Amino acid sequence: MPDLPFRLLPLCLMFALSAVAGTSSADNQASAAGTAASPAPSALTKPSAPIASVANAALPQPGDDFFRYVNGNWLDSTEIPADRNAWGVGHALAEQTNQNIVKLIEAAMADPNTRGDAKRVADFYAAWMDQAQIEARGLAPLQPLLADIDAIKNKTGLATMLGSTLRADVDPLNATVLHTENLFGLWVSQGLHDPTRYSAYLLQGGLGMPDRVYYLEPAEKMQKLRAEYLAHVTAIFRLAGLDQPEARAARVIRLETALAKTHATRDETDDMQKANNLWRRSAFARKAPGIDWAAFFRAAGLETQPQFHVWHPGAVRGAAQLVAQQDLASWQDFLRFHSINRMAPHLGRAFAEQHFAFYSRTLRGTPEMPVRWKLALNATTGALDNAVGKIYVERYFPAQNKARIAAMVKNIVAAFERRIDAVDWMHPATRREAKAKLKVLYVGVGYPERFTAYDGLEIVRDDAAGNVMRASQWHYRQQIAKLGKAPRQDQWAMPAHIVNAVNLPMQNALNFPAAILQPPYFDVNASDAMNYGALGGIIGHEISHSFDNLGAQFDARGRLRNWWRTADLAHFNQAAQGLVTQYASYRPFPDLAVNGQLTLGENLSDLAGVSAAYDAYRATRATRGSAAEELAGDREFFTGYALAWREKRREAATRAQILTDGHAPAQYRTATVRNLDAWYRAFDVQPGQALYLPPQQRVRVW
Ligand SMILES: [Zn+2]
Fold first, then answer.
1. Which helix (H) or strand (E) holds 437?
2. What is the whole-number distance in angstroms between the Cα of residue 320 and the centre of ligand 1?
């Protein structure tokens, strides 16, 4: 998805993409590098290091603030680099990984024998680094598109243009990309009810800001952002040399505000039952009148697709009405602005800086633009993610890691299965279905079974923006070519060089990319306690997503099907409600609390994940040690867990995260340990301490 201004954030991922992405500008993959000041990862993984790092009298007691107890020295002595909106262990690891990748790309550029996809990567990167060439071309790569927009004569022409710009740039369940500047976004995945075929999903879009709340909330902070956005849209029109930039910007924002009113909220988007709408193509004209749908689908190459899952029916209806009601000139300005805005990071300096100023500085609080190579790598990954991943693992992923991590996964799955067996409230029929899901779970470790080949994609060394547009189109054609065919469970959704992990609920599959399988998350030289606390917590988290409030709605084959007995589901929901309340009580700012419902899936997965990882760790201890040794091991396990969450984030980025992202801020995710009895024993946590919960208030779901 190469041409997004930013990607919104994941439900089933381990981390918010913004947490590990370098900027919130162009095509964020969770990959961009940071600058300077990264803590040496190896220092974090020596078993003795965390214990030593907490011997500071100024730090709180573990029972009062466990996140700060483990990470306080680091928090007090670390500055977020100026080109980042957050910094932590994941960022440091991504930084190091990216430096390694860029050396490989530079070697490929210098080698006259580089061929195939490696050459595409090298040429894409080289074109992006060639700023003189980019300045010289100016807006030329966009001129054909802008001329087509100028030539729109009527609403059928408008529908054709809207259809021809449709891209496969959203993904509500896997990577959880919910934002597109196009009027709609397309996602291709197996059917909600038919796992034997790839189906088409249509999602809402058309906003330049991240979510409807940015347009509609009366809060002063939002009013200020709206004024900044108006200034940004005006500036883009002015840079493009169009007359009356203020009037055009006002029209674009009026149209977007009308669209925003029809958009589903972030919570509604997460509700599978509301997303479960299958429309026949022939029914669109009746269900959502106002767009010439025949022209739209023909231009999108979807004229033979018999039906669509309409994730946001209200927004599709609303957009169609606005196409009918609003004048053509407003829609043309809307199309002009978004065509330029989405490509701005890939154009000359003035466009890229304007884009950064609004999307990264204003919306996310990042003071400085990253240096060129980081942006170039980010863009290359956005366009050619699997090709970059392949270059990385060929050089950097040791085969023995794969076996050792696969064994950890097996142990944690077994621990989770024992938990399913042990819950006393579950009917045997529900239990059988839950265990069937675990039995056929696909666990990908390191890299995909097959790498995507980019055959037919033309990448040239002197056309950075053209490369981005061709890659986006190529990706779209690849995706729609899959429609109607049989899905593969082992199809990966995340490239191998990304520091993150993902659960794919419909595929009943997990992906653990090679880049997260390194210190400090996993270290062959660290103790089991540390590895199970850090990486084990992540593995457990992803397994548990299959049984969170979203995952539990899909069966072993990935069908949206209720396999729960009523009483079991009621018990599950009641336990989950305890977690909603617990997280809603966290208030990072006086005027903003964590959204307990929006973050529920992640919090359920954190809780079940660390519980299963803890069980698996205990099971690996073949012989029982003395009580003191056991406690020391448990302390190390929980310390490893809290170290994996080490992170600082700017206020603007934290606020954006709370409004739009399913992941709670890191300090609250760490605090999930307050629901585990073993943590109380390990750190002698007592009533009266801030994190203390009486046993009956500790949430136990699995
Ligand atoms: Zn997650």
1. helix 428-439
2. 34
